[in-house]
Amino acid sequence: xxxxxxxxxxxxxxxxxxxxxxxxxxxxxxxxxxxxxxxxxxxxxxxxxxxxxxxxxxxxxxxxxxxxxxxxxxxxxxxxxxxxxxxxxxxxxxxxxxxxxxxxxxxxxxxxxxxxxxxxxxxxxxxxxxxxxxxxxxxxxx
Amino acid sequence: xxxxxxxxxxxxxxxxxxxxxxxxxxxxxxxxxxxxxxxxxxxxxxxxxxxxxxxxxxxxxxxxxxxxxxxxxxxxxxxxxxxxxxxxxxxxxxxxxxxxxxxxxxxxxxxxxxxxxxxxxxxxxxxxxxxxxxxxxxxxxxxxxxxxxxxxxxxxxxxxxxxxxxxxxxxxxxxxxxxxxxxxxxxxxxxxxxxxxxxxxxxxxxxxxxxxxxxxxxxxxxxxxxxxxxxxxxxxxxxxxxxxxxxxxxxxxxxxxxxxxxxxxxxxxxxxxxxxxxxxxxxxxxxxxxxxxxxxxxxxxxxxxxxxxxxxxxxxxxxxxxxxxxxxxxxxxxxxxxxxxxxxxxxxxxxxxxxxxxxxxxxxxxxxxxxxxx
Lengths: 142, 374
Fold this sequence. Notes:
The structure holds 2 protein chains of 2 kinds.
Chain A: H1 6-18, H2 20-24, E1 31-39, E2 42-51, E3 54-60, E4 69-74, H3 75-88, H4 97-103, E5 108-110, H5 114-122, H6 124-141
Parallel strand pairs in A: 1-4
Antiparallel strand pairs in A: 1-2, 2-3, 4-5
Chain B: H1 33-36, H2 96-99, H3 104-113, H4 132-149, H5 151-160, H6 168-194, H7 204-214, H8 219-244, H9 248-278, H10 282-301, H11 304-315, H12 321-347, H13 359-362, H14 366-373
């Protein structure tokens, strides 16, 4: 699957919305964030919004779009993360989004609003489940 | 009664209640004032949001206005009519700046929605037999975390009964924090006991830190020490949890705790910001607390038992503790202090020119912190 494509994130959106029980355990999450993939001079940016137990919006995000936080990194790092998710059914080892941001070698957490940045930690497990949905989406589409 | 400008006129009863009895059948006097017209707002109909009726939904009209200086010292609900001779409950935190944060209602709702169970939501059955040194290190860390987590329950409990009841949302949020911390103490105690290990050593260092926090002279100082400094550091340990977890069980445990802890830090950061913005004099009070707190925390963080347990976990065992564990631990310490200093910037109490933390020694880049908080 091509990961720098809004359609890819829409598949994960469908997975999340199809499985509310998985997310009910974690509770409501309300945040809007961006994933930014840098590849040389090209930059792919997707804007994702969670409301309660659902992913209600996935779309291209303009650079000046207002989000709580952005996760910014090279396409190669994102590819490695999603490859791990697809290979193992979920992120493992240091390929979880929290580990990647904590190490900060490639994927960075950025944002202007301290409350918005906090949401990365406050909704981290929900975000991880959303990302892990890539594996379920892959199974569903094969 | 809460003093609010433009408050509506007393409700006029749309029925005539004048004929009601003045005394009970036993001869006791009866009071119909609540029926005949109170000064509080009447006819409020907040609309539930899609998830239900939240605290943000009902913060409407006078009910949503939190006074800077409440008139009363009773437990009367904010927005109702209050008798003039209501007893004083002995509150000492009677200024909004003493306790408030602009995200209080949101955090309360979030906390209620995201509660979890240390019994049910951690896959305890998936625990694996670990090498003896790794199990010991995890048990030592869990011993420490079981010890320190409950300070974040004891401290709000110490101050909550002193908070004016008009700040009910702040008190409600702190109640959720107390529940969260009980669960954290539970989950780390369970982990220590559940895989063939047990609770290990408790040294004096952590207790010194906890005592510094619990003995803070003001609530705002206590918040600076607990939410910003102490919980901020623990939050980073939880974030680090993914790197030190020998199995998915611990990963899940740390990640769930991280979400809770981040709410507490979010409240503390925004409370301090609110306090400093509205009462700049309070900044020095916060700095004084942090001057002392940073020293105690540094002693705690560099305590030999804490640093060795973390290093063993980061190295995956004692074999690589020197070439891998300690260097990684140092890197994590650098990240902890960087996060803490950035939070201080966000809270409006910049420590960059004042801290005694050896920034150069740790390799902390001040410009990065300034940029991240800008």
